[in-house]
Design brief:
The chain contains 9 helices and 11 strands. It has helices spanning 2-17, 20-27, 31-45, 61-83, 111-116, 168-174, 221-229, 239-248, 278-289, and strands spanning 50-52, 57-59, 93-99, 120-126, 140-144, 152-166, 188-191, 216-218, 234-238, 252-254, 263-271. Helix 1 (2-17) packs across helix 3 and helix 1 crosses helix 4 (61-83). The longest helix has 23 residues, at 61-83.
């Protein structure tokens, strides 16, 4: 039983790293030992799990299916072991988390975790790029958009919904657009991703984003909110970041019937590990409890 679990753990690490050498280095084993354990596991399950060639190692169809089961098995064992830890254990040490830079979506929700676990040191990385959690030593991430790949664990938190908005003063001076084409004569405030360098498209089915005026472009949501409130132009912004401004009348929605597919999924993401530290488990459990 123990040998089988060890072989499964080795297989998962090879699947994650794509290399016997890298997996062995992470597990403190030689590459030949890693290869033998994987071969023994393949013999036990009666299927080839890895496709080997001179350049890289990849999963076979059977390997893809087995990986999902293997990760769940090891995670259940890890949960069982963690449950046996003393309740008096005090979480401490450093955690590193990547957070999508959406105002009021996440940053305002982490104070409860920080206040409850004062001995845990936290490093926040606010970025719209999808960081390499394993390679850059991140404990977790809060991501907007894109289903995480199969080598990561994740939990769906909800949807981020965005709307087109402008200030009352702007609409009174320039007129309220009634259809998508009307935007061609307006000042528009766009967002350029710091990661990809691409300008965020506006979900208007009757007009292509590439034809919209790129009057103002910036890579910061807070700046776009301020510019819109100041009456500079129309912006496409997450509702969660401007709820107070909408309620107070600082901003007004426009073209609500013209927008389609304005929601983006949000996930808590963390790397797979056979065993998590107490601080990591507490962080993951807290992130899973968040709702958008």
């Amino acid at each position: 039983m123990i040998e089988s679990l060890s072989a499964i753990s080795v297989f998962v690490k090879v699947a994650q790293t794509g290399s016997f050498v890298s997996a062995g280095r992470a597990l403190g084993l030689s590459a030949s030992t890693v290869g033998k354990r994987v071969a023994n596991l393949e013999g036990a399950v009666g299927a080839q799990l890895l496709q080997r060639n001179t350049r890289r190692i990849s999963l076979t169809f059977e390997g893809e299916r087995f990986l999902g089961h293997a990760q769940r098995i090891l995670e259940e064992i890890d949960a069982m072991q963690n449950a046996m830890l003393s309740s008096n254990e005090t979480p401490s040490g450093k955690i590193k988390i990547s957070i999508a830079p959406v105002p009021k979506m996440f940053s305002d929700k982490l104070h409860a975790f920080l206040g409850k676990h004062e001995k845990i040191e936290v490093e926040f990385d606010f970025s719209d790029r999808f960081v390499d959690l394993v390679g850059e030593n991140f404990d977790a991430a809060l991501r907007v958009g894109g289903v995480p790949d199969g080598n990561l664990r994740y939990h769906y938190l909800g949807e981020m919904v965005s709307v087109l908005v402008a200030s009352r003063a702007y609409l009174e001076g320039r007129g309220r657009p009634s259809k998508g084409d009307d935007l061609l004569s307006h000042t528009l405030i766009h967002y350029r991703s710091r990661n990809s360098g691409l300008i965020q498209p506006w979900p208007l089915p009757n007009i292509g984003s590439v034809t919209l005026p790129q009057s103002i472009i910036c890579n910061d949501i807070d700046t776009r909110i301020k510019l819109a409130i100041q009456g500079v132009g129309i912006a496409y912004l997450p509702i969660i970041s401007i709820e107070d401004d909408l309620s107070a009348g600082h901003l007004c929605t426009v073209l609500t019937d013209e927008i389609v597919n304005a929601s983006t999924p949000v996930y808590a993401v963390w790397p797979y590990a056979h065993r998590y530290s107490l601080r990591q488990r507490l962080l993951i459990d807290y992130l899973k409890s968040l709702r958008c």
